[in-house]
UniProtKB/TrEMBL annotation:
The keyword Transport does not apply. It is an enzyme of class 2 (transferase). This is Class I SAM-dependent methyltransferase. It comes from the Bacteria. It comes from Streptomyces sp. 900105245. Signal peptide: none annotated.
Length: 355
């Protein structure tokens, strides 16, 4: 059986469940709308972005609000646990597992850069826990920078168990970090959260868990999207780090620095250029092309697309190849050297020591 036929059969097998999930609409996937900022409690909120799911194209509309007092950006109304399960399903696992594993597996240089951020502060940590590790690709690459370090991974998906079977992590912790934190108390020299905190329903609870898991004198490394990036304004809904509906909280660096201090950490490094991922223009062009083209087959669609729609999609994407290539070149060679100076960095990284 061909790969295409096998995928089509797999999608057809999943379609009845999605049809049942969507029979009553998407309202049940959302909690009540907040009237106060979840970070500082201010009532001065304004809509920052209205968008749809631009990656999987699952049904639903999503709003990000911004607090006028502290600048915190958050999904409002937020997804419920049922909504999170629905929108995460078949993204990192299931149908999306092979695609996402290939995407994350090819980012070795970035993973090494993240590990190198620790060298000035602890050049030889014995134990490191990577929270939100996915399939453990960071840990595998970081071991080339820190060969004497034992890397464990934590995630709520079965990807972390795959990482252990593949030897990318020494030990796999599966579950919610705050729930596991008492078992991990003062166990690690370093805890990392790379593009994890923005997915959390309660970032402050995750920071408290990190304080519990890091030994006194150890370090926490946090990397998150920067909502103050100028790209967020210039590219609008096509800015990839909005990543709706998965990103629930986007925290400005000043806010996170203060909260870490309140939680018993001292921030010893703040990096912007080093955390920047030069893909903004490429991703924006791809998202726009993908949005303009007919949908490819997915189990949340009522029925698979016909030959005409598949052909039209292929033609649109093929016509967009020059634009994609140009955007990639601009990202890497024109914007990247100037990103920090121009305020275009799409992420920042903090290294904090537990006192």
């Amino acid at each position: 059986m061909s790969d295409h036929r096998a995928k089509s059969d797999r999608i057809a097998g999943l379609r009845p469940r999605y049809r049942k999930d969507l029979a009553g609409g998407t309202d049940r996937f959302f909690a009540s709308r907040r009237t106060t900022c979840p970070w500082c409690g201010s009532e001065r909120l304004a809509a920052r972005l209205h968008t749809t799911d631009l990656l999987q194209h699952k049904p639903g509309r999503f709003t990000l609000d911004r607090c006028a007092d502290c600048g915190h950006v958050f999904q409002n109304p937020r997804l419920t646990d049922e909504g999170l399960e629905f929108y995460y399903r078949d993204f990192y696992d299931g149908l999306g597992e092979q695609r996402m594993s290939g995407t994350f597996g090819g980012r070795t240089a970035m993973y090494r850069s993240r590990a190198e951020a620790m060298l000035p502060h602890d050049p030889a940590p014995k134990t490191w826990l990577d929270v939100g590790t996915g399939h453990g690709h960071f840990c595998a690459a970081a071991r080339t920078v820190l060969p004497a370090t034992s890397f464990d991974g934590l995630d709520f998906t079965d990807g972390v168990e795959l990482a252990a079977r593949e030897g990318r992590v020494a030990h796999a912790w599966r579950g919610a970090f705050p729930d596991l934190a008492p078992e991990l108390a003062a166990r690690y020299d370093v805890v990392s959260m790379f593009h994890y905190l923005e997915h959390s329903t309660d970032p402050d609870r995750e920071l408290r868990a990190a304080h519990e898991a890091v030994r006194p004198g150890g370090h926490l490394v946090v990397e998150v999207p920067d909502p103050r990036s100028r790209y967020a304004r210039l590219l609008g809904r096509w800015w990839l780090p909005w990543l709706q509906p998965q990103h629930l909280h986007l925290v400005p660096a000043a806010n996170l620095r203060r909260r870490l201090t309140e939680r018993g950490f001292t921030v010893v490094a703040e990096q912007h250029a080093e955390a920047h991922d030069p893909v903004d223009l490429l991703a924006a062009v791809w998202l726009a092309l993908d949005r303009a083209a007919p949908r490819e087959d997915a189990p949340w669609l009522p029925e698979p697309p016909g030959a005409l729609r598949r052909g039209l999609r292929a033609a649109i994407l093929l016509a967009g190849v020059p634009a994609l290539a140009s955007a990639a070149l601009l990202d890497r060679f024109a914007v990247r050297p100037l990103a920090h100076r121009l305020g275009l960095c799409n992420a920042y990284r903090l290294v904090a020591r537990r006192e």
